[in-house]
Amino acid sequence: MDSEKLLLVVPYRDREEHLSLFVPHMEKWLKAQGIDFNIIISEQSKDGEWFNKGSLINCGFKEADKVYDYVCIHDIDMLPCCKKTCDYSYSASSIHLASRVQQFGYKMPGKNYTGGVIMCPVDIYIKANGFSNLYRGWGKEDIDFGFRIRKAKSKISKRDGKYSSLEHQKQKWHPDKKFDDKMLQSNKQLLKNMISGKHDFRKDGLSNIKYKILNTEIISSKTKKITFDIR
Questions:
Q1: Which long-range contacts does 17-20 make (Cβ < 8 Å, 24+ apart)?
Q2: Which of 45, 103, 120, 213 is the most buried (most CB within 10 A)?
């Protein structure tokens, strides 16, 4: 067994059917690979706020014990299905695993795509200041994180990971409000600002995340779910 310890952080909201499948699958998968790990399901409270994936990831990371060597950010609707390519072992550089995902026809959806499943050493995550807290809904926050890693002077390698996709309806961005195209355009502008250097990533992320813990649920000896009120 490797001596390095893995923290798996899973942003989560209203996906109960996925949670019941994801946790046992991932625990079995990581144990089979001989990896020392813990999983934090980082849940956003149902308080009428827009979904904020980046902030949830930062919250989960902040609340983890300081015993981990590397962190993996993992979508809850992606399950590894190839033992050879879905390798969660430690790397001194950042690794994007979800290269071949069922919902994308087992092809990369874009050249800068770093979403789905990405791992990096804890010190790189800290240097990158984690994820941006400014993105709402789903989209572009993962690409932003990829640029943060590069700005932290770390390269991103790829493992040709093959993942099956759990079926689900389109993720709601808000408990009561309909999809807002203006918000998607705002996310695109945020990404442009990151790429151009207009946005200072050092001031947005782990360094300024604000939240309150509402509940902690022990799912298993390896997994717990923390519910956050993001401020």
A1: 17/166, 17/168, 18/76, 18/77, 18/166, 18/168, 19/76, 19/225
A2: 120
Instruction: Decide if 141 contacts 188 (C-beta within 8 A).
Output: no
Rounded average pLDDT per 10-residue block, the chain, 231 residues: 86 90 97 97 87 95 96 96 93 94 87 90 97 88 94 91 81 61 86 93 96 97 97 83
What is the C-alpha to C-alpha distance for residues 20 and 22, in angstroms, rounded to an integer? Answer: 6
Instruction: Please state the separation of Cα 207 from the chain's center in Å.
Output: 18
Q: How far apart are CA 169 and CA 181, in angstroms?
A: 18
Give residue 117's Cα distance to chain centre.
7
User: Which of 79, 90, 62, 107 shows the shortest CA–CA distance to 205?
Assistant: 62
Strand order in the sheet with 223-230: 156-158, 94-96, 117-121, 70-74, 5-12, 36-44, 223-230, 211-218
For residue 114 the two structure tokens come to 């770093």
Coil vs helix vs strand at 13: coil
